[in-house]
Amino acid sequence: MTQHPTPESGAPSLDQARRQIARYGLPADPQAVLVAARLMAAGARLGQAGEVHFGRFGLSTGRYRLLADLEDHGGEKSPSQLAASLGVSRATVTGLADGLEREGLVARRPSTEDGRGNVVILTARGADKLRDLAPEHFARMQALVGGLSVEERATFLDLLARVVAGIDALTAD
């Protein structure tokens, strides 16, 4: 039988979910509510851990994602393309790119396709930064899921995709 870690103190329990739902007289499934609550709590903890992790390299999660996205797409993208692929606003991309540009990790130049716009370019220094952090970054990423077998990771990826598909339930009007 697989041993599962017990939730840390303060994590929602199934009994808590049942009590909260009963308090309001709702027909919600306590287990579904518990899974969602724990997923949200894990997401918050993972976000905080990601900031600590990337902070070791003088980056934030957002700044890393922008650099990695540029690297994955030939080293050049428009701010609107970056915003779409990162799932953030153009204003957020501008702020991230401003900081990265100050450090020489990206540069901007006029777009050859749209003379009115600019593109963000990954500089050699930015590419070097990604290459330098890669060994530690990927070792830590692997360690993050090291307690899962290959089969469990495949199942997790499938389940995660289905959960992500339901995220709009939290934000829909």
Features:
single chain, 173 residues, mainly alpha, three-stranded antiparallel beta sheet, 8 helices
List the helices and strands and how they pair.
Blueprint lengths: L13 H10 L6 H26 L5 H12 L3 E2 L1 H8 L3 H13 L3 E5 L7 E5 L1 H21 L5 H16 L2 H4 L2
Antiparallel strand pairs: 1-3, 2-3
Would you mind describing this structure in some detail?
This protein is mainly alpha-helical and 173 residues long. The chain is 64% helix and 7% strand. It has helices spanning 14-23, 30-55, 61-72, 79-86, 90-102, 124-144, 150-165, 168-171; strands at 76-77, 106-110, 118-122. It has a 3-stranded antiparallel β-sheet with strand order 1-3-2. Helix 1 (14-23) crosses helix 2 (30-55) and helix 4 (79-86) crosses helix 5. The radius of gyration is 20 Å and the shape is elongated.
Order of helices and strands: HHHEHHEEHHH
**What's the number of extended β-strand segments?**
3
Order of strands across the biggest sheet?
A: 1-3-2
Which structural class should the secondary elements be placed in?
mainly alpha
Unreliable parts: none
Rg from alpha-carbon coordinates: 20 Å
Largest sheet: 3 strands, antiparallel
Shape: elongated
Percent range for β-strand residues? 5-15%
Query: Roughly how many Å apart are the termini?
Result: 43 Å
**Helix amount:** 55-70%
Would you tell me the overall average pLDDT? 93
Report the total helices: 8
